[in-house]
Inverse folding.
């Protein structure tokens, strides 16, 4: 199984949002991130900036609001 780390990039800093994510879903409100045995997390007003398949990392940015 391929699992990814989801990282939020803001003001030049990175914050780990979800380790071992199994699903990232784009919705009208932002991104929903899921992992096994955990409740899904909504990252409001967020979009995917980059996906690094080699290092298993998805970088997202947020236009406004909070996680």
């Amino acid at each position: 199984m391929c699992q990814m780390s989801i990282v939020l990039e803001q003001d030049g800093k990175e914050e780990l949002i979800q380790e071992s994510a199994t699903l990232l879903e784009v919705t009208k409100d932002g991104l929903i991130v899921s992992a096994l045995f955990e409740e899904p997390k909504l990252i409001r007003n967020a979009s995917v900036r980059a996906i690094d398949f080699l290092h298993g990392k998805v970088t997202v940015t947020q236009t406004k609001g909070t996680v």
